[in-house]
Each structure stands twice: as structure tokens, then as C-alpha cells.
Amino acid sequence: MLDKAAPEHVRASFRLTDGGLEEDCPWGVVAEEVLGGAAPWRTFRWRKGQKHYSGVFWAATERNHVIYESRLELARLLFADFDTSVRRIVAQPFLLKAEVAGAERRHIPDYLLFTAAGPVVVDVKPRHRLARPKVAFTFTWTKTAVESRGWQYEVWSEPPKVELENIRFLAGYRRDWLFDQTLLNELRTASPDGSTLADVVRSLPQWPKRVVHAHLLHLLWRQDLVTDLSRPLSAHGVLRSAA
Predict the structure, then answer these.
(1) Residue 70 contacts by C-beta under 8 Å, 6 or more apart in sequence?
(2) Domains (ranges, CATH) in the chain?
(3) Half-sphere exposure (CA, 13 Å, Cβ side) for 5?
(4) Which of 89, 101, 137, 243 shows the greatest Cβ crowding within 10 Å of its Cβ?
(5) What pLDDT score was predicted for residue 243?
(6) SS3 labels along 55-122
(7) CA proximity to 225, closest of 208, 206, 205, 200
(8) Where are the alpha helices (DSSP H) in the chain?
(9) CA 2, CA 187: separation in Å to the nearest integer?
């Protein structure tokens, strides 16, 4: 079945932020800037007993809220917001339609990321569901359609647990207007490669320790400074300047 998943007559429908609707536009000619400003195709409701944990996340990249429909989608949002190459994040950007294996197929990707390397269409799915024939079939023809216009396609599943928890923690320091630029500049100078968080905090006794610590975490979120996120963050974590 998968080898027959060659999409034909691919079209995209999308919603505009002013409430307008564009339907069945030829996929290859829909402008990037139009999709970059698209409103989510679906809306969601909270109800008792629902299977998914839906909500909104304030993304520093967007300086606005972005929706998600599961905890796994929220995790992907955190990683996208942390990624300095990501310039825009669009949730449920469009409805993709195509004729595949003799029938019309439909699919709404979870996210569209505009990155320094170009647009990336993202589907989020738990790893244990990827082998299901229907899921594999949908992702196969979607990948072909997305890549037909030179874009990247990504299926994203559960990330390493420690890395996720580190990024989730650093996201608490993502709001840049809360931080003092004078102290941030001092920290960039006072954080030579190989120093630890504790070393840097001690090197600036003129500032309260908790304030220095918070500003360091903001620099880690911005990736002006980097450390090994595959290990739990601690005062003994070794810092490096971003390459």
C-alpha cells in the first residue's frame, strides 16, 4: 500500500486571521508568506473526559500564543521555541488534500516552522503509533507532497526525557523583557568556556545570586551560552559560548 502513496492534484485550504477562508488552492503555488500568517485550521474545546490535553503556549518566537492538542505537541512547541533557527511557528497551518491510491485523502499537519534553512512541515505522533498502516500511509503521501515543493517534512515523536525537562525548565526564562541588559552583557563576558554556573554566579558578587542565576538561565534559553542538555541542569554544569 505504501508504494502506491503517490499524491496527485494536491491542494491546500487555509484560514486567514481576518476570518477569511481559501479553499483548494494548488499546493505548489500557495505563497509561504500567506501560510506564515494562517490561522489554525481547527479550533478545540475543553471537555470532561477528553483524551487529549489541549491548550495554548506563549511562544517567545511568535510573541504570541500557539495552540497544541496534546502534551506531545506541547513538547514539540517547546523545542521549536528553543531552536534559534526557527523564525515562525504556525499551528495547524492548512488542510492538505490529494488524490492517492484512487481516493481523495485529507490531512492537517500539526505545525509549519519557518526556519533559516526553509519551511518545515511537522507531524507529531507517539512512537508506538507510527507503524499503524493508516498513519504510515498518511505520512508517506504527505511527505511526498511537502517535499515536492522543496520543503522539509518531519515526523516527531517522544524526545529524550532529560533534554525535554531541561528545555521545559529553561522556558520559564524565555521572556526577554524581564531581564537587565547590563547584567546580561556582564554575564557574556564573565562566562568563559569551561566555567560552571556556580563559578559565574560567584564571579559577580555585586549582583544578588538569585538574579545572576536567573539571567544565566535566560542566556541558556537564548543559546548565547550553551551546556550539555542531555544531563540534568545543575550549578556544576559546564558553560560554553555559542559557536
Answers:
(1) 52, 53, 54, 124
(2) 2-156 (3.40.1350.10), 161-241 (no CATH)
(3) 19
(4) 89
(5) 65
(6) EEEEECCCCEEEEECCHHHHHHHHHHHHCCCEEEEEECCCEEEEEECCEEEEECCCEEEEECCEEEEE
(7) 200
(8) 32-36, 71-82, 133-147, 161-170, 181-189, 197-203, 209-222
(9) 53
* CA neighbor of 220 nearest in space, from 202, 206, 237, 205: 237
Of 97, 110, 112, 106, the residue nearest 34 (C-alpha): 112
* Residue-wise pLDDT tens digits, 134-168: 999 999 999 999 999 999 999 999 999 999 999 99
Cα gap 231→201, rounded to integer Å: 20
Give this prediction's pTM.
Answer: 0.93
- Whose cell is 516527531? That residue is 156
Alpha carbon separation from 90 to 41, 194, 220 (Å, rounded): 10, 37, 24
CB atoms within 10 A of CB 136: 15
* Whole-angstrom distance, CA of residue 17 vs CA of residue 42: 13
Per-residue CA distances from 84 to 10, 29, 203, 220, 228 (Å): 31, 28, 28, 11, 17
Residue 154 contacts residue 83 (beta carbons within 8 Å): no
- Whether residue 114 contacts residue 121, with contact meaning beta carbons closer than 8 Å, is answered with no
